[in-house]
Amino acid sequence: AVPETAHDPRMGLVHAGFFMGMEEAVAAVEGRLRASAPLTIAGHSLGAARAFYAAAMLKAGRLYAFGSPSPGIGAGVRDALPSGIDARSYRNGADVVPWLPPPSLGWRQPVAMSEILSPPSLADYFGHLGWHHSTLYAKAFGVTAPS
Fold first, then answer.
1. Each residue of 11-33: pLDDT tens digit?
2. Is 64:42 a contact under the CB 8 Å cutoff?
3. Using CA atoms, how far apart are residues 25 and 96, in angstroms rounded to an integer?
4. In terms of pTM, does the model score above 0.90?
């Protein structure tokens, strides 16, 4: 199925489902941010796609995206990110989520993805989706889940 798009005046064509509720979410936090500290936004999977939108809308200074699906068509999301933002996006091994929706339909990642390698165990291997689990991304950066 082809994902529905929505038009945002800042970012152009975005994934309608991913973008749903972003205006309200940004409005809820906008007044609570301190201008003196650069804003850092991070997310995994759907949260990473939404982190790209939030970074553009809130003029973030740093962005970390892990296993993000493509949030928009063309270069609109990339062009809406603040000038000088330290934006990093990571793809773990054979994780297919960053290739969805497919580039063949015009969907694009806003920044180049860095490849990391944190393979799933055989017990957790569910084909290429097994590579998408957030704990594998955390493990690649030396972060362990609290017990």
1. 999 999 999 999 999 999 998 88
2. yes
3. 28
4. yes
